[in-house]
Design goal:
globular, 11 helices
Length: about 325
């Protein structure tokens, strides 16, 4: 792979998005290589996974230092996730050979992107629901659910191994659904840590098959590593919600195009998602507090509820 500054810039862009939002590594890098740079789809998957192996530890190290990694959850994800990710590379070979294989892999990547968009929207909805319920509903010590977590590892690892998509956008959403009260920062830290061995297993499988290009991965890393560090620094200042919506719209358009949906459908679909993003991003008005039954009136106003003992009492005359 010849050196290309445009590849370095693409790596920096993807790394920055990962640092800012925690999502979009494989979901952005692989389709960029396929649609913009014309890289062979199977080679794009393997090279993206090789890039992620070196990029993920930077974010994981930050969370490990902060103590926001649930190692018990990680231990239940890996027994199924690692072998599933490794086998995903070999399962691609059953889709055909030559041009037929590459065409079908594009469709698989597009379907995975649409699944990733669904996962992102589900995550944003769950985050809003958590915020509405209050932070007291979150708990860093929620007990792990072994069987559902093993299933998450199996499904997530298989998707990552076949498409390089999902280690940051699908698995974290499934973890949120299975452990809805787990604190958000613990979810992110746990997801980043589990992604390292799963992505490494997937990359190893693609390397054995001959899909991974270490030269291409090295060029991407020249931009991705500083990009993810800059994104992590900016994440405390940039409007993360807006960036997630932009990322979701980009992935929706790319996913639909890869599954051969016509532009007459892609443009309205993205416009609808953008309109929904604007509407849902508006701050909600806080609900007025309702006084409990039998509570004393404020400023002489009645609460509209009878006293607890059911006896009507005359209100004291106002002094003028």
């Amino acid at each position: 792979m010849d050196f290309s500054w445009s590849m370095v810039v693409a790596g920096a862009f993807v790394g920055c998005m990962v640092g800012l939002t925690g999502m979009g590594g494989g979901a952005l890098m692989t389709p960029l290589m396929v649609t913009v740079f014309g890289v062979n789809p199977t080679q794009a998957i393997g090279s993206d996974l090789a890039t992620s192996v070196f990029m993920k530890p930077f974010g994981a190290a930050v969370h490990q230092k902060a103590g926001t990694v649930r190692w018990d959850v990680v231990r239940w994800l890996l027994p199924t996730g690692v072998p599933a990710a490794f086998c995903g590379a070999f399962l691609l070979q059953f889709l055909g050979e030559g041009d037929d294989l590459q065409s079908r892999v594009k469709i698989v990547i597009g379907a995975a992107l649409l699944l990733a968009v669904t996962g992102m929207l589900a995550r944003m909805w769950l985050d809003r629901r958590r915020a509405a319920q209050g932070e007291e509903t979150e708990d860093a010590h929620v007990p792990v659910r072994p069987v559902p977590t093993l299933v998450i590892g199996l499904v997530g690892g298989l998707v990552v191994g076949m498409t390089s998509v999902g280690s940051g956008s699908l698995i974290i959403v499934m973890l949120m659904l299975v452990h809805p009260r787990l604190k958000a920062n613990h979810l992110v830290g746990t997801d980043l840590v589990q992604a390292i061995p799963i992505v490494a297993a997937a990359a190893g499988g693609h390397f054995l098959v001959g899909d991974a290009s270490l030269g291409l991965a090295a060029v991407l890393l020249l931009g991705a590593i500083p990009g993810v560090l800059v994104g992590a620094v900016l994440s405390t200042r940039a409007p993360g919600a807006v960036l997630r919506w932009v990322l979701a719209i980009i992935l929706l358009a790319t996913g639909l195009s890869l599954v051969h949906v016509p532009e007459t459908v892609i443009v309205p679909a993205c416009a609808v998602l953008a309109a929904y993003a604007v509407i849902s991003s508006r701050p909600r008005r806080p609900r007025p507090a309702t006084a409990p039954a039998g509570a004393p009136a404020v400023d002489g106003e009645s609460t509209g509820e009878p006293p607890a003992d059911g006896i009507e009492r005359a209100s004291a005359p106002r002094q003028v």
